[in-house]
Design a protein that fits this description.
The chain has 14 helices and no strands. It is mainly α. It starts with a helix and ends in an 8-residue tail after the last helix. The longest helix has about 45 residues, at about 1-45. The chain has helices at about 1-45, 50-75, 80-105, 110-140, 145-175, 175-195, 215-225, 230-260, 265-290, 295-310, 315-345, 350-365, 365-375, 380-405.
Length: about 400
């Protein structure tokens, strides 16, 4: 029997590699390099904690605005087409930014270029992310009961990109902003080309009504409300994201000004966190086989809460790095649970809209975290992080307490 099954599984894995995993890898790497590389330009240029927090918020607000359109467009036009067009658009935007920074390496024009580039690439990347997630969810549904394996691989790709992206952007930044942006442009072009191999997803031209940009989000919101298990998990993770978002927004201030480290040490924190998350995803992949969704998710929630509370009181840089890595690793385990539940429960014809609504809710805390960082004196950031960590612990505890008897998390 094994001789008959193995070739089929190998063929299926090869198909996923070419059509799902490789396009996702290129897109995720371009996303990580731009997300972590562009804010480093802001920090290096301004050396201001307030402007760093403001830039973080400004980077996320346009992304959130894009979700009103992204899901419904993916549902109507198909994942492959949206993935291709938005990756190509991001490449063009990055190329234009590289030219502007070559002509104006410093001053007001350079600062404005970097901020506009952060917002533009953020919006385009959210469209490509929704498209890639929709294609990945379709692949997960085709995998049946082993959908979590596909989701674990996708999360592993994201975390590997998060591990490599900041480090690669930092090294390229030593050669100057234009070379760094040029490399991200090439990777974005590669993502656009690979997206042409992504299988076409079902399209639903009758939805949503024309002229109503919020119709897709409204459909997604209604779907979330109709799925209590998904709703409670999203609620808990949203409160958790306020704490993790604050650690991300305040990270440069904490590491550079509080612990006296260099800007390179900021990237090292998130590279270590990504490496820890990769290990956690692998462990969760095997744990889900034996234990199921709820035990793994609840254990990760408890670990994340404890790590965040401890990180707020970290006495030195090394302990801070380790605690943030543990926090993000546990968050990665919860994300595997969320993705598996999402691909299992959401109807295919409503997936893009519901995915957009879900991610929008989950990302709302990030601009809030940027505003909090901008408004909070550096010496008081520890107290704010502690309060958010306590809120995270309460939210995750209540969410998983409600989910304990839910049949959707028993397998």
């Amino acid at each position: 029997m094994s001789e008959a099954v193995t070739p089929r599984h190998a063929h299926h894995a090869a198909g996923l590699l070419c059509t799902i995993y490789l396009p996702r890898t290129a897109d995720a790497l371009a996303f990580a390099m731009s997300t972590y590389g562009i804010p480093l330009l802001v920090l290096a240029t301004t050396s201001s904690a307030a402007l760093t927090g403001a830039a973080f918020a400004l980077e996320w607000i346009p992304r959130l605005a894009a979700f009103g359109w992204a899901g419904s467009i993916v549902d109507r036009r198909g994942a492959a087409l949206v993935f291709h067009i938005t990756s190509l658009g991001r490449a063009l935007a990055l190329a234009a930014g590289a030219v502007m920074l070559h002509l104006h390496p410093s001053g007001t024009v350079a600062s404005a270029t970097v901020m506009v580039l952060a917002a533009t690439t953020g919006v385009l990347t959210e469209f490509s992310y929704i498209a890639a997630e929709t294609a990945g969810a379709a692949a997960g549904r085709r995998a049946g009961t082993r959908a979590y394996r596909v989701q674990a691989v996708l999360l592993g790709i994201d975390q590997t990109s998060t591990l490599a992206g900041p480090a690669l952007a930092g090294v390229l930044l030593l050669a100057g902003p234009p070379p760094m942006l040029a490399v991200i442009t090439v990777i974005s072009l590669l993502a656009a080309l690979l997206a042409l191999r992504t299988p076409p997803s079902p399209v639903f031209p009758a939805r949503p009504p024309k002229g109503k940009s919020g119709a897709g989000l409204l459909t997604g919101w209604r779907t979330i409300r109709s799925l209590p298990a998904l709703g409670w998990l999203v609620t808990g993770l949203t409160l958790s994201n306020l704490a993790t978002g604050l650690l991300q927004a305040a990270g440069p201030v904490i590491v550079v000004q509080h612990f006296g480290q260099s800007t390179t040490a900021v990237g090292l924190v998130w590279s270590a966190a990504a490496a820890a998350t990769l290990v956690a995803v692998t462990v969760c992949r095997f744990s889900l086989d034996r234990l199921g969704l709820w035990p793994v998710g609840a254990a990760c929630a408890a670990l994340a809460s404890l790590a965040c509370l401890a990180a707020a009181q970290a006495p030195d840089y090394l302990s801070y790095l380790v605690l943030v890595a543990v926090l993000m690793a546990a968050d990665g385990g919860m994300t595997v649970v969320l993705r598996t539940l999402r691909s299992r429960l959401i109807p295919p014809e409503q997936f893009g809209s519901t995915l957009s609504a879900t991610i929008l809710i989950l990302l709302l805390p990030f601009p809030v975290a940027g505003v909090l960082t901008a408004l909070t004196p550096p010496d008081a950031l520890g107290h704010v992080i502690t309060a958010c960590a306590a809120l995270q612990a309460l939210g995750l505890f209540y969410a998983f307490a409600r989910l304990r008897t839910d049949p959707a998390l028993r397998t």
